Amino acid sequence: DWTMASYKDEAIRKIREQVGDKQVICGLSGGVDSSVAAVLIHEAIGDQLTCVFVDHGLLRLNEAEEVVTMFRDTYNIPLIHADEADLFIGALEGVSDPEVKRKTIGRLFIDVFQKYANQIDGAEFLAQGTLYPDVIESVSFSGGPSVTIKSHHNVGGLPEKMGLKLVEPLRELFKDEVRALGRELGLPEKFIGRHPFPGPGLAIRCPGEITREKLDILRKADAVFIDQIRKHGLYDEIWQAFVAILPVRTVGVMGDGRTYDYACALRAVTSVDGMTADYYPFGHDFLGETATRIINEVKGINRVTYDITSKPPGTIEWE
Ligand code: XMP
Fold it and tell me: What is the pLDDT of residues 187-228, one digit of tens each?
């Protein structure tokens, strides 16, 4: 793509001009935006960039390893893997209020990020994968009245607190343009096409009390559901798909024994921007096969339901 190729060259030139010979820190979430920003900045300034990946232990199966392998081994980008799962899960254990979950995660995220960023000598810049819609949204929020349904955890205010200047090379781009830029930078297609994933991760897909046991079960069930969706060639038609583990155990029968295990809900929606969404009309064969696989392959779940609520009135996530 000629346009993106020249956009990339221009962006690299601007980053070099802004940063000079100073050090830059980039918070990597594993999502498309921060990843594209990191790879672009690395092309511009090489090892003057260090990425900090805060692993809160609320990621999907194998996700942390995949991110670390891709950035360290494939791209040779200096990366600090802040494995702080015990800190986050410890603080969340027994918490069931969705807003308390989000605020706890947001607060710890900032603490942890600062702690690791302080280890990088002479850093003067903080890189963020802010997109154009984020810029617009933060402006309109300061205007008229707005209703906050869910307080998205973000790291607003962090640069000022740390005395860092911002590098935001994606500020003029929309999501589809970021994807095109990612392709231009050689990021794998499977990575670029990934569904969005919320900052608080699996914490908000585990309604009710968070426990390590439930998180482990959830990760396995989610991996089976996504595998089914990929195998049936449906992944790219769906905006977001995931499993939520419900805070209830129900009775079942397996072989000649009685089971008393968790119920889960499958969620899959189509959407353009996440503001409104329709549930995905899977065929019954797909749903039946997926339920059988989850119950057979995931110890701890004995009942599978499908969430057919659209947004509004539902939200995409369960919390
Ligand atoms: P809802 O559940 O509000 O989700 O319909 C709309 C989109 O936002 C994502 N989401 C979040 N993302 N922090 C995030 O970074 C959050 O706290 C959060 N809550 C929801 C959700 O995954 C969907 O893409």
Answer: 999 889 999 999 999 999 999 999 999 999 999 999 999 999
Tokens of 12: 């690299």
- Asked, colleague to colleague, whether 2-192 and 206-306 share their fold, the answer is no
Instruction: Collect all residues with Cβ–Cβ distance below 8 Å to 260 and sequence separation of at least 6.
Output: 249, 250, 251, 252, 302
Residues lining ligand 1, judged by CB closer than 6 Å? 102, 150, 152-153, 196, 198-200, 240, 274, 311, 315-317
User: Which atom of ligand 1 is nearest the CA belonging to 275?
Assistant: 6
Structure-token match 């498309």, residue found: 32
The pTM score is: 0.92
Q: How far is the CA of 216 from the centre of ligand 1 (A)?
A: 21
Query: Which pLDDT does position 152 carry in this prediction?
Result: 57
> Residue-wise over 246-280: b if at least 16 C-beta within 10 A, else e?
beeeeeeeeeeeebebbbbbbbbbebeeeeebebb
Each residue's pLDDT tens digit, 23-82: 999 999 989 999 999 999 999 999 999 999 999 999 999 999 999 999 998 899 999 999
Q: How far is the CA of 237 from the centre of ligand 1 (A)?
A: 19
| Complex ipTM value | 0.99
> What is the fold, at CATH topology level, of the domain defined by 206-306?
GMP Synthetase; Chain A, domain 3 (3.30.300)
Q: Which residue has the tokens 């390893």?
A: 65
Q: Where are the domains of the chain?
A: 2-192, 206-306
Distance 168 CA to ligand 1 centre (A): 22
Q: Do residues 203 and 92 make contact, with C-beta atoms less than 8 angstroms apart?
A: yes
Domain 2-192: assigned CATH number: 3.40.50.620
**pLDDT confidence band for 92 (50 / 70 / 90):** very high
